[in-house]
């Protein structure tokens, strides 16, 4: 590890990403490596979520967005899908007090219409209970797909009765399911794959990507610090030149 990476991310507290999005991947392979059923990896993955949420609170991250279940994950064996739904229900019930104690506002985004009534009710309760919290905004993406989000936003604009050629980028952004948050400054994907898998397609136009081989159940506060340290070494130019950035900071 380089000297720079060794430096705790907290050292540069002024440049903590405001919004971190994570594709939590590698649960199945984590379990397989230990000759355990895939589900053991998902259960262990919940511990990693707790660790990373705590780390984000401590480091002053404002928004943490976690990809928990994609619109494509229904293609998995039915037993795995049903166990994942059960785990989701359990987390919603067990973690809600913890979230309130830590001033966390919980949001769940995705096509929730596909969930059963009980789960929809739990989601609504969890959001309502934490709605007034002012600390970290934790968004869980469940039955989420970036394409679904964009199509949904377009349909809402049409429903509003907009004229042809009148749609702007700002208007479309305002109809996305995460319109309450700025776009992610950084995307982390664990588990060794280097793809987006239909996550926040629109909002990732200028996110900094950080891919790590670490399987999600092994990801913790230290891993997060490494990602943040990498983010802090990058120059975000948004189309401009380095010289222009230097000039504007003088
Ligand atoms: C991510 O881990 C969790 C979900 C997609 C629900 P995986 O289950 O995809 O783990 P791998 O990729 O098979 O190791
Ligand atoms: C992406 O992981 C979705 C989540 C982490 C919820 P997958 O494991 O489903 O992604 P692919 O299928 O390998 O691209
Ligand atoms: Mg996977």
From TrEMBL:
EC number: 2.5.1.-
Cofactor dependence: Mg(2+)
InterPro entries (alphabetical): UPP_synth-like, UPP_synth-like_CS, UPP_synth-like_sf
Coiled coil (residue ranges): none
Signal peptide extent: none
Active site: 25, 73 (proton acceptor)
Pfam families assigned: Prenyltransf
Binding residues for substrate: 26-30, 38, 42, 70-72, 74, 76, 189, 195-197
Keywords (A to Z) from UniProt: Magnesium, Metal-binding, Transferase
Cofactor note: Binds 2 magnesium ions per subunit.
GO molecular function: ditrans,polycis-undecaprenyl-diphosphate synthase [(2E,6E)-farnesyl-diphosphate specific] activity
EC category: transferase
Binding-site residues, Mg(2+): 25, 208
Similarity-based family: Belongs to the UPP synthase family.
Function noted in UniProt: Catalyzes the condensation of isopentenyl diphosphate (IPP) with allylic pyrophosphates generating different type of terpenoids.
Subunit structure comment from the entry: Homodimer.
Protein name (Swiss-Prot/TrEMBL): Isoprenyl transferase
Species per Swiss-Prot/TrEMBL record: Undibacterium rivi
């Amino acid at each position: 590890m380089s000297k720079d990476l060794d430096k705790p991310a907290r050292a540069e507290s002024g440049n903590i990403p405001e919004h971190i999005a994570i594709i939590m991947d590698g649960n199945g392979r984590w379990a397989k490596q230990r000759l355990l059923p895939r589900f053991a990896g998902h259960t262990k993955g919940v511990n990693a979520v707790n660790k990373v949420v705590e780390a984000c609170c401590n480091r002053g991250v404002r928004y943490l967005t976690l990809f928990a279940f994609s619109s494509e994950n229904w293609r998995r064996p039915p037993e795995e899908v049903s166990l994942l739904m059960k785990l989701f229900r359990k987390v919603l019930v067990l973690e809600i007090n913890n979230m309130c104690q830590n001033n966390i506002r919980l949001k769940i985004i995705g096509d929730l219409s596909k969930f059963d009534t009980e789960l929809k009710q739990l989601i609504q309760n969890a959001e309502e209970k934490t709605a007034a919290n002012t600390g970290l905004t934790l968004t869980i993406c469940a039955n989420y797909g970036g394409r679904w989000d964009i199509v949904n936003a377009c349909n809402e604009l049409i429903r509003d009765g907009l004229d042809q050629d009148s749609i702007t980028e700002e208007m479309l952004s305002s109809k996305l399911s995460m319109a309450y948050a700025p776009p992610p400054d950084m995307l982390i994907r664990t588990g060794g794959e280097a793809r987006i898998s239909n996550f926040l397609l629109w909002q990732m136009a200028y996110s900094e990507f950080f891919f790590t081989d670490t399987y999600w159940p092994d990801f913790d506060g230290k891993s997060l610090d490494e990602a943040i340290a990498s983010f802090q070494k990058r120059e975000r130019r948004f189309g401009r030149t380095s010289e222009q950035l230097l000039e504007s900071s003088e």
